[in-house]
User: Which sequence fits this backbone?
């Protein structure tokens, strides 16, 4: 491969990785404070998408649809926490996982019922479909926006988690929930905050996802949550740097397989990446950034 | 007020437990415990491993729910509250095994101790004070708490508890696993707390050490308060060993 | 013959599909119910069973048409009812044996996640290996070899098998690892090995179920081996009570019944004569809500921890005791 081609692929990895990293971060945040892998998280992206669809088809400008989409995602996330997950606060990991799956099914069917079972198109600003020349590279505006959004999200989140008492409290609660309560930290607030930030990340990711694919469909939430899930598992469940790392590792392996596999084997690029994940889980059951011997799993 | 070994009831104890029973599911760890702690006192809670001392502290602070009895702090009933709410009323617990946030820095751990306070200036001033009081902490401010030695971690745990400016400090086995020199330092610190407005209830297996700093003590065995009296009386008690094995009810010592 | 009662088309189909569903849910129970580890991947084994059966039973003429990648010796084969079932079960067990070498060695949470990866991988293979599976367009031309009695017989046999396994020494050892794998290991249980056995056995039953299903429904396609179906089966298991076999049967019944009623409502727009708005996906949504409610309020399922016969026994005992009490003190019983 030529240098240009390699550079092109690196841009792809950066762009795809940023998306996956954002998804993984949202998932990891909630897992950290609650031990819940929220399968309904992908539905937040769908909720954002459908909000944007409803607004754009009713004549609202795109930027308003984006803001509303993100806002609705945050609201939905909070509602999820309050009504579906708070009653299950002390359930086992698998019960939580399964309940979130049930919730995701409910939401998907709500789309099917109240909007349409069919895929619908969402039009975004034209500029996002175009590309820009950087030297010999062709970089799409979509990729640029995604990379910037990802970078800003990661930096902002890091600053929040290290610099504010709310962020430090969340990290403490994720590390040791009981002792955090001994410091006077309110359990409900910390968890709600995690869901708010998670919803915000999902909203942003949802905007990007819908802009990239140009469509919404009832089952669209499954792929993002699958990617996020795999990325967090690779990086280490509950570890925020791990989530980011996992997102990029997953993106890199997908791009690698897409670039190197012959055309006939292309559809197998995702499953191959998953085989890689199983391999990682075998040697490091707690993810790449966690010590293999820790008892978290 | 203590006079001639007869312990008199003060009208306004800071902490008052009345017939408190608690445990874990079917296991009863604390049985009808009655005790009190008065302002500016240091009270020792003694007993062998498994006597229920840690459970008692955790019940006071709300991490374990009491199944019967009443817990009054600063005049109000607190037995039914969440730990966060009990702590916010002015109690701090330094748990056995310290339970530091090992992945967070020393500074962040201290900051978390003051999580319930809103006065940024006061918090910063207190953090500086802790670092002066425990110079080790000052030097290792940016290090992860997990990298500290056992003694340093205990100091951090203590400092973290003090950051909330508690009225009552509950200490669970502060000397466990530490070198004698460090233990002395820590206990010197503990001794000075009442003069700063902090009342202390300290759980200790090291009887001699505990009785040196405290004015009164309770002996717990099998979850029940077996013995109580002033520090001098307990120190003199020849049958302290027997009290651990006995199954009698609380008995006050007279001269 | 009693079969005549169920002869009406859609009701017959419902009942036969219920028995087949029982087999599939029981296969899940064998692994998930005993080990406590959720497996998302059993759809892979059902699929293996179904596709292998298709390869073996679809008439040669049709096979030549739809499976361009099939080797000549396979094209020639056209088998009856039982042999494909056996081969399908063996094939599924083989797949599970290989996969299990890696997956069963993992800790519980890691293993559960790997089964999710397995689901996606299997679905991708079914979807994309069109030469042998015809992907999302689907296989057709399967003979309808299954009937009501065969399905019921196999379902009953599976119930017996699952209960026998549950109470066998290995089954007991798997269950001991469910609450606390570490403690079980310390007590001398080879947790990995017994889980492996449950894994392979449950896969074999899944494969068998897939084969019987394929030989009833005349055709199928790759989307039917994905997460919607997995979720439905797991839901039935949870509703009935994971840890026991009767729970699997009852859960399957409850969900099938409710789904069927709702499906009719969805199609006809009326419930017992009342007009109901046509809501697409209503059935799935209601089932999911019910699952959620059960998980919140009764996480051990309708039947809880005990098998059905145990519940009956307890009810009978309670009645006996009440009667004995009434006989000995007639005055007390007047206040009821």
Assistant:
């Amino acid at each position: 491969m030529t240098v240009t081609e390699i550079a092109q692929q690196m841009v792809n990895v950066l762009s795809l990785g940023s998306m996956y990293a954002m998804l993984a971060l949202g998932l990891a945040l909630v897992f950290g404070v609650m031990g819940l892998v929220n399968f309904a998280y992908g539905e937040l992206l769908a909720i954002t998408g459908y909000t944007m669809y409803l607004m754009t088809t009713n004549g609202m400008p795109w930027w308003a649809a984006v803001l509303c989409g993100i806002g609705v995602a945050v609201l939905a996330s909070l509602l999820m926490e309050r009504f579906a997950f708070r009653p299950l606060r002390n359930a086992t990991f698998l019960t939580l996982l399964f309940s979130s799956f049930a919730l995701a099914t409910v939401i998907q069917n709500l789309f099917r019922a109240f909007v349409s079972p069919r895929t619908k198109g969402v039009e975004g600003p034209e500029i996002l479909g175009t590309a820009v020349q950087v030297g010999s590279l062709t970089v799409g505006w979509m990729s640029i926006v995604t990379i910037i959004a990802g970078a800003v999200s990661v930096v902002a989140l890091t600053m929040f988690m290290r610099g504010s008492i709310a962020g430090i409290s969340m990290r403490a609660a994720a590390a040791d929930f009981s002792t955090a309560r001994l410091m006077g930290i309110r359990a409900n607030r910390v968890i709600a905050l995690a869901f708010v930030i998670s919803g915000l990340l999902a909203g942003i990711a949802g905007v990007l996802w819908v802009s990239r694919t140009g469509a919404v469909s009832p089952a669209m939430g499954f792929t993002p949550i699958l990617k996020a899930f795999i990325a967090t598992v690779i990086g280490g469940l509950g570890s925020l740097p791990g989530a980011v790392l996992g997102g990029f590792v997953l993106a890199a392996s997908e791009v690698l397989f897409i670039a190197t596999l012959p055309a006939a084997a292309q559809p197998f690029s995702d499953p191959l990446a998953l085989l890689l994940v199983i391999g990682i889980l075998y040697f490091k059951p707690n993810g790449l950034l966690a010590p293999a011997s820790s008892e978290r799993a | 007020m203590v006079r001639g070994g007869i312990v008199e009831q003060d009208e306004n104890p800071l902490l008052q437990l009345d017939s408190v029973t608690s445990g874990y599911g079917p296991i009863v760890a604390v049985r009808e415990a009655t005790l009190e702690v008065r302002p500016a006192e240091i009270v020792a809670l003694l007993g062998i491993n498994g006597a229920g001392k840690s459970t008692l502290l955790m019940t006071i602070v709300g991490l374990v729910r009491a199944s019967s009895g009443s817990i009054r702090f600063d005049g109000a009933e607190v037995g039914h509250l969440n730990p966060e709410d009990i702590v916010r009323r002015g109690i701090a617990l330094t748990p056995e095994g310290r339970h530091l946030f090992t992945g967070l820095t020393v500074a962040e751990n201290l900051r978390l101790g003051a999580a319930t306070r809103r006065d940024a200036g006061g918090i910063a001033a207190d953090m500086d004070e802790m670092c002066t009081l425990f110079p080790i902490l000052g030097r290792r401010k940016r290090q992860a708490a997990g990298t500290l030695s056992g003694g340093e971690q205990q100091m951090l745990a203590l400092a973290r508890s003090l950051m909330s400016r508690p009225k009552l400090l509950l200490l669970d086995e502060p000397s466990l696993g530490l070198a004698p020199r460090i233990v002395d330092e820590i206990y010197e610190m503990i001794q000075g707390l009442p003069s700063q407005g902090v009342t202390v209830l300290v759980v200790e297996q090291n009887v001699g050490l505990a009785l040196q700093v405290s004015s009164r003590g309770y002996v717990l065995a099998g979850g029940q308060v077996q013995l109580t009296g002033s520090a001098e009386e307990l120190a003199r008690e020849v049958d302290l060993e027997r009290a651990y094995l006995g199954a009698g009810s609380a008995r006050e010592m007279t001269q | 013959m009693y079969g005549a009662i169920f002869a009406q088309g859609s009701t017959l189909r419902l009942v036969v599909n219920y028995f087949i569903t029982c087999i599939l849910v029981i296969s899940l129970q064998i692994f998930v119910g005993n080990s406590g580890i959720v497996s998302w991947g059993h759809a892979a084994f059902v699929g293996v069973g179904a596709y292998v059966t298709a390869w073996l039973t679809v008439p040669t003429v049709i096979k030549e048409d739809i499976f361009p990648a099939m080797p000549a010796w396979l094209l020639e084969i056209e088998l009856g009812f039982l042999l494909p079932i056996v081969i399908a079960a063996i094939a599924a067990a083989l797949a599970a044996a290989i996969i299990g070498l890696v997956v069963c060695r993992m800790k519980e949470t890691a293993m559960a996640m790997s089964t999710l990866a397995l689901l996606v991988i299997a679905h991708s293979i079914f979807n994309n290996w069109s030469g042998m599976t015809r992907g999302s367009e689907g296989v057709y031309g399967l003979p309808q070899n299954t009937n009501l009695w065969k399905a019921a017989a196999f379902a009953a046999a599976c119930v017996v098998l699952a209960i026998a396994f549950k109470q066998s020494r290995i089954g007991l050892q798997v269950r001991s690892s469910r609450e606390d794998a570490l403690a079980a290991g310390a007590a001398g249980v080879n947790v990995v090995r017994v889980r492996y056995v449950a894994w392979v056995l449950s896969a074999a039953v899944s494969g068998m179920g897939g084969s019987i299903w394929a030989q009833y429904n005349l055709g199928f396609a790759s989307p039917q081996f994905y997460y919607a179906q997995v979720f439905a089966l797991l839901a039935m298991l949870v509703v009935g009570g994971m840890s026991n076999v009767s729970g699997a049967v009852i859960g399957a019944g409850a969900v099938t019944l409710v789904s069927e009623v709702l499906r009719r409502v969805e199609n006809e727009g009326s419930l017992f004569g009342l007009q109901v708005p046509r809501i697409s996906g209503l059935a799935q949504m209601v089932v999911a809500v019910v699952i959620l409610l059960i998980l919140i309020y009764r996480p051990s399922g309708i039947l809880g921890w005990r098998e059905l016969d145990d519940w009956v026994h307890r009810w009978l005992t309670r009645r006996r005791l009440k009667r004995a009490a009434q006989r000995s003190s007639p005055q007390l019983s007047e206040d009821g």
User: Anything to note?
Assistant: Chain C has one domain: 8-324. The two ends of chain C are 47 Å apart (CA to CA). Confidence is low (pLDDT under 50) at residues 1-8, 332-336 of chain C. The longest strand of chain C covers residues 270-271.
